[in-house]
Design a protein that fits this description.
The complex is a heterodimer of chains A (71) and B (350). Chain A has 71 residues and is mainly α. Chain A has two helices and two strands. In chain A, strand 1, helix 2 and strand 2 form a beta-alpha-beta unit. The longest helix of chain A has 19 residues. Chain A is globular, with a radius of gyration of 14 Å. By secondary structure, chain B is an alpha/beta fold. Chain B has three domains: 166 residues, Response regulator (Rossmann fold), CATH 3.40.50.2300; 30 residues, no CATH class; 124 residues, no CATH class. In chain B, strand 4, helix 4 and strand 5 form a beta-alpha-beta unit. Chain B is elongated. The chains are: A mainly alpha (71), B alpha/beta (350). The interface between A and B is large, with 32 and 40 residues.
Amino acid sequence: MPAIALAANANRVVRGVQVQHPCGDPKLPEEADRDLSRRIVSTALSALQTPVIVPTLFDPPAAAPERISAS
Amino acid sequence: MGQSARIAHYVNQFFGGIGGEEHAHASLEVRDGPVGPGRALQQVLGGQGTVVATLICGDDYVAEREDEAGAAIREALERHRPDLVLAGPAFDSGRYGLGCALACRVAQSLGIPAITGMYPENAAVITHRRELLAVSTGLDVTELKAILGRMAGLGLRLARGETLGSAAEEGYIPRGIRRLVLKDKVGYERAVDMLLAQVAGRPVASEIQVQQYDHVPPAPPVGDLGRAMIGIVVSTGIVPRGNPDHLPGARALSAGRYSIDGLASLDVAHWESAHGGFNTKILNTRSPDYALPLGTLRALEAEGVIRGIYPWIYSTVGNQTAVGPARVIGRRVAGEFRDAGVAAALQVSG
């Protein structure tokens, strides 16, 4: 719930998935779930390396698309 | 129940006319019909109820010999078989409050509805909040009759098998019990209604209490993550299975401190969430890692993205948590992390 964290003036906020499972999504296949968790936690780690002045929301990147070879 | 409800009334030695503090050791005495404030109770009941028995017990006796007093109350209730038990009101008298609470608890264990009346800060409310249906009173004993009227009103409805509404609607002291309710309108419609009422200057009652929060200057960025020890804090209520510190599901006043040293991830055999503000089924049947991503952090640690993970986690329940206690928890955690050389903390909230 980023809105609540931001309203409470948390300075670096990362958007999680859902209240009941912020760090992953049990509906996803195992590997995709692991990847999602990694994107969320990595976003938190890069937020820690980012200067902020006011409460700031960091969105984890979308899942990497399937690789397409453009030859 | 078409006829008059049979009511048993519990009072202490003072209100029961036995005497003051010098008679506080009096054991339970049962008299037929109303005694003392029971007469006022009988007046407010009118034809709806009859005080068939008055249970009188010394405050010290009930406070010091709860087992014996409870057994005597049980025996009296089994003999008189009331439809309803009313106790007190006890106002802010702690021992009398405990006596009223005992009478109510014994009655409820026999399937008899029970209502008492107390000042919200009575020690018995603090001790037995969840079990007590207590009408909220002030400290003014001259309001006795009005309070008895409110107790009788709620009690008669319970005796008829009705379900009471919320504490705020009915005027009893909140028990800390949360129920799912259906509203006629969905949340956004209610929010718009509130907004319109506010604009029109009509009274608005929020469904949640909103508080203004402090601004804390942001910490400077972490320079080199590869040299950083990361601390983990959660308000998702992750605790060792069994919740050894009895972390409450709401209004937590403290945080648990637990070792994750050497653990690759959290599993449901050894960990669970004590959070009372959301459905914890996924955390408690699939993986607590969904609210404390230890496995993911271990992978990043193994790859050298971070230097390490602090071996102690702090966990509390972020659910109606007051700012004051949260600040105390935060200071304690930040102090320990700083002293241990933790470079940054990740905090997971639901």
